[in-house]
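Hello forum,

I keep getting stuck at the same step: I have a sequence, I want structure tokens, and every attempt I make locally crashes halfway through. Rather than fight my setup again tonight, could one of you with a working pipeline run this one for me? It's a single chain of 76 residues.
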Amino acid sequence: MVITLRDNGPGMEAAILERAFDPFFTTRGREGGTGLGLPICQNLITRQGGSLNVASRQGQGTSFRIFLPMADDSAD
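Reply #2:
Ran it on my machine without issues. Output:
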């Protein structure tokens, strides 16, 4: 299963995109966030056998793709 989330915001420059999944990395400053949201999401998804990818271009928005394995219904 693939879930894609896109926005049409300002996008991320390459230096920020490289660090998007680094724990405690944030562009919001001291009052804006902890920098844990994306690393936690990535950890939860990979523990389920999936992956989380991001693509972004300045001025064109950002896209996150979540890949999850299909459930094995034979266990029911």
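The chain has a mean pLDDT of 93. If your local run keeps crashing, start a new thread with the error log.
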